[in-house]
Design goal:
Number of strands: 8
Bound molecules: glyceraldehyde-3-phosphate
Number of domains: 1
CATH class: Alpha Beta
CATH superfamily: Aldolase class I
CATH topology: TIM Barrel
Distance between the termini: 29 Å
Shape: globular
CATH architecture: Alpha-Beta Barrel
Strand content: 5-15%
Number of helices: 12
Radius of gyration: 17 Å
Length: 261
């Protein structure tokens, strides 16, 4: 089945709320609307930017989606510094990245916590983008496929088939993030195919076939075309290149089927 590619720009901890609005406007200026019929483009800014991003996207009917980089497992209450899924849903978010390797590494997030965050998203109609990926030593030992599949199963534990259907997976080999080393298209396909096989086990072929599996790690306009030609790669979770409006517009256009004129 044809899956609409998703290009999600994870800004990480970059851009204040004024810079955020300017970036969305520049991408909208560079990327003619017709491309959005063939690719879904989402912005994943820091929490403080989401309101501004919402206003410019909704106000100008830009056709982009947006979301958050993390979420609390708690609903509300005395959890200083936390942001709930309900708050993000109220702001019109579609997506929430959960289990990014930077959160797993710097905030000691476990598969169990990631699964709880994914469940919190679903409770409020948000689609989690569940991130998985191996470190360099695991790849060098040749254990990357088994590692990623186990991490995936742990990070989706407890989700029912309906929830899985509206979950996005992002395969991000840690050694390729922010390093300029993109996994080869064949490397990405190998793991994304194993992810889809695991999703088939969990949710059945019909649902697994409609779920999007993204690749992330130094994606840019030169690499996105070949990555998306792979049968199990359905888009990109894009870090550094999402902060450059012309580059992000170009790679989104390529994901839609052709470069900008
Ligand atoms: O979430 C995005 C990924 O961590 C990839 O970041 P990158 O494109 O800067 O390598």
């Amino acid at each position: 089945m044809a899956r609409t590619p998703l290009i999600a720009g994870n800004w990480k901890m970059n851009l204040n709320h004024l810079e955020a609005i300017a970036l969305v406007q520049k991408v909208a200026f560079a990327l003619p609307e017709k491309y959005l019929e063939k690719v879904e483009v989402a912005f994943i800014p820091p929490y403080t930017d989401i309101r501004g991003v919402q206003i410019v996207i909704e106000g100008d009917k830009l056709g982009f989606a947006y979301g958050a980089q993390d979420v609390s497992v708690h609903e509300s209450g005395a959890y200083t510094g936390e942001i709930s899924a309900g708050m993000l849903a109220k702001l019109g978010c579609t997506y929430v990245v959960v289990g990014h390797s930077e959160r797993r590494e710097y905030h000691s997030e476990t598969d169990e916590l990631v699964a709880a965050k994914a469940a919190a998203c679903h409770k409020h109609g948000l689609s989690p983008i569940v991130c998985v990926g191996e470190k360099l030593e695991t790849r060098e030992a040749g254990d990357h496929v088994g590692f990623v599949v186990e991490q995936l199963k742990g990070s989706l534990a407890g989700l029912d088939k309906g929830q899985l259907a509206s979950t996005v997976i992002a395969y991000e080999p840690v050694w390729a993030i922010g390093t300029g080393k993109t996994a080869s298209a064949a490397d990405a396909q190998e793991v994304c195919a194993a992810i889809r096989a695991a999703l088939t086990e969990l949710a059945g072929p019909e649902i697994a076939d409609q779920m999007r599996v993204l690749y992330g790690g130094s994606v840019n306009s030169s690499t996105v075309g070949e990555l998306l030609e792979q049968p199990d790669v359905d888009g990109g979770l894009v870090g550094g290149s999402s902060l450059k409006p012309d580059e992000f517009a170009q790679l989104s256009a390529i994901a839609a089927g052709g470069p900008l004129p």
